[in-house]
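SEQUENCE, STRUCTURE TOKENS:
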Amino acid sequence: MAQNTSKNLRNQIIYSIYVRNYSGEGTFAAVERDLERIRDLGTDIIWLMPVHPLGVKNRKGSLGSPYAIRNYREINPEFGTLQDFRSLVDRIHELGMKCMIDVVYNHTSPDSWLAEHHPEYFYRKPDGKMGNRVGDWTDVVDLDYGNRELWDYQIETLKYWAEMVDGFRCDVAPLVPLEFWKKAREEVEKVRPDCIWLAESSEPDFVRWLRKAGVPVLSDSECYQAFDLCYDYDVYPAFRAYLKGELPLSAYAAQLNMQEYIYPDNYVKLRFLENHDQARAKSLIMDERELRNWTAFCYFQKGATLLYAGQETENTNCPSLFEKDTVSWDTGHDLTEFMRRLAAVKKNPVMADGAYSLKALDGQDILTGAWEESCGREGGTLEEARENRKIRLAGIFSLKGRAAEVETDLPDGTYRNCVDGTEVQVKGGKLICQGEPMILEC
């Protein structure tokens, strides 16, 4: 884990925007006009998917992927000018939010500025031609970090953008050498001391497949040496398997609990129900009550919460990366007010530095969780710490949206549900869940 990673990142909400498809206009200016609405969702950080010009050679679809970049040091003219970009970032800052941009450092488009001017920076196939190590990425060619001059160029580029933005989301970060990322973090620190580093870490099957093919790839634990946040792809397959009925809820909860002891104390996970590479949450969880429970659980988990633009209006279509495919803001559904209430809970300090645990009630399809704050004196015994620990937040999430009587460790009494403001009675170590999410202040 990066030694100076702040646990306060666990209180943050990150809002991801694909500028091309965010609006019909598809520009920085259109995003800027909507910033107050985005802020009012409880957003702390806006992550802009790649803002650079795209390659033409071998492009996918009619418009090309934002992850096949032609020039790291320029702005995509489809979105506006550099001045337009600066105006957007300035306004983000004025509204009290931070801005993070995508960094795609494993590869470029085949017709990139680097491919033309520095072909020595690129990976070569056995036939000597440029190529990539992941076969279906036909619109890109891989960089070769065995060339240290490439390191200098890439780090200079990061420092240039770090003068404007607050952080970087690093695409397929595990395919770029760890030592490069550590050096990049050290150098960017000189320009942006509190720079935020998010690694798009990989799913377990992808890591195993690459290693079997002899391709070097970093685990989450390795990524954490340079990054502040990693995706929670390590548990995402279990989430999908539970939704399909292939795993019990307890198996998913066990994987989440395991993160507590396999990562450093200040680990931060990016918690999401959807992103630009995965199906929309609403397409996976169609029942409104179930979706509210999963959404509340996503905010309750240990880590930063990711929202993908359009999630608040329950879009079912994940916009194409290669075509004009605008987000619908008029779906007839709106989770905005619900998300605002959850955002207020997310700011509770116990979610940054408390002890976190989960329990699955398989027969009821309910997850219960607790955030506990230790009040034990420093240097006290483990028993003293256990006795003095106080539950600050308790969560009950009915993932099938069913009412049930739930056993709880909470003392008998009346508690406020932060999600909807109602009062909840605990009597005889039990409470009644009506099928709606509950986060109780204790």
